[in-house]
Amino acid sequence: MSKYRVRRFFRPAVYRVASICAKAGLSPNHITLASLAVSIIASLLLALGLPVLYGLLVFTSGFLDGVDGALARLTGRVTLRGGLLDSMSDRYSDVAVLLGFAFWKEAESFSLVFPVSVWVALAVAGFIMVSYVRARGEAVGVPLDVGFAARSERLLILSASSLIYPFFWQAPLLGLVFCCVASHLTAAYRFVVGSVKLKSKPPSK
Questions:
Q1: 133-to-52, 175, 184 alpha-carbon distances in Å
Q2: Which residue range is the domain that position 109 belongs to?
Q3: Which of 35, 100, 114, 134 could anchor a disulfide with 144, C-beta 3.0 to 4.6 Å?
Q4: CB atoms within 10 A of CB 23
């Protein structure tokens, strides 16, 4: 993991919450599904015109996404099935937190080169490609947790920009655009890094 990851900053709080969840008898899968549910609710709130609540819930969803892994490690319940559920849930959550922008009435008047609906579609593609390139790299033995716009960073940007809404109504939309561009740049960067590592990797016998 990159030393610049946002998750490093929140790790102490994540493990404290994970410890509480362990004492309460919750499983990592419970937290994974809770994180997905929160992201869906966040999207619905944004569509209803409540971007500040959206920002708070997006942050909560991202925080819970860290808690599930910490809880799995604390309780010795790290499993391939749990990892698969977590990956699938994260991808659905990524799409959910973006779809709310497409249905937010106030966003209809926003246009920065493209209308909001196009930015949402491009962002969905970018979010998925960041994770896909990393997964493909790991499948051939090349770790690719590099680049600025990993999942935790994207969710934090979406959250923070939405919390600024009362002072600047376009802030959530600019956060969307920034995350979109940054995600595609990160996917491209991971591809380049992966290509270089694969060139220097000895062929398997």
A1: 32, 23, 11
A2: 6-192
A3: 134
A4: 8
Residue 76 is classified by DSSP as: T
CB 31: neighbour CB atoms within 10 A?
24
- CA distance linking residue 155 with residue 90, whole number of Å: 11
Report the distance separating Cα 126 and Cα 74, nearest Å.
32
**Does 198 fall in a domain?**
no
Q: What's the confidence (pLDDT) of residue 200? A: 79
Which pLDDT score, from 0 to 100, does residue 1 have? 47
Residue 182 sits in a domain of what CATH number?
Answer: 1.20.120.1760
The model's pTM? 0.91
- Expressed in angstroms, the distance from the first to the final Cα of the chain is 29
pLDDT above 80 (res 201):
no
- Is 65 assigned a catalytic role? no
Is 203 a member of any domain? no
Q: Which of 65, 90, 94, 145 is catalytic?
A: 90
